[in-house]
Fold this protein.
Amino acid sequence: MAIAEKKKEGQNILSNNLFQVGLVVVLVVASFFMGSLWTKVQMLEKGGVAAPQPTTAAAAQQPAQPTVTLAQVKDAFNKSYIKFGDTKGKLTFVEISDPSCPYCHIAGGMDNTLNNQSGQFKLVADGGTYVAPVPEMKKLVDSGKASFALIYYPGHGNGEMGEKALYCGFEQGKFWEVNDLIMNNDGYNMLNNTVKNDKTQSGALAQFLSSVVDPTTMKTCLDSGKYDTQLATDQKLAVNLGVQGTPGFFVNATSFAGAYNFTDMQSAVDAALK
């Protein structure tokens, strides 16, 4: 009996050990998947939610921004490099952006892959309810009803080379053409997976943009370093406006800190144009 009891006791210990090992494995696997999910959510939710309550759920909430005056917004507009129009009209748009930021792509309306993956930001053209603000702002700029400035802020970390390409494109009168390529899904992957602020990848970025700008001219511009200080200038302008994340929008002095549906901005636009 003693031998049988010891054998049974050993079997119980072995069973308990196997159960504990199995439990550990399950917990490790679960932690891995939860970590992966959290990483994806964090990557997408870099952009932040803005001040009035949006009609669509926005990204992770940004810290409250200080109130700014229209004079401060116009001063930032005038000191920015990429701008269309002037501040003499009724309506001034300022976008604070990082071309490597996923929510900036969502607000840009050219990356339906990210828009659709985010669920609540699915574009109207794809059967959703989200109206990307940047194309709507451009329509108002093109019609002469508004002015627009783009200011860089490092909201995601891989956008410096992309922003320089936007500066170079603006210099050559090809800003929107370059912007549309950089802000599509291929552009997002190019900046975040290939370029990653590596200056030796300027040729790859220039080639990526070769359908709209001469690649040799673009590479020369990117390699020149002529816009290095402009990146710092833009960041200072963004900080002075109280921006702490991307994307950030100003409709005159009204702040929208996140990837807002343009329908949430419409009342501020209409009020300015009265």
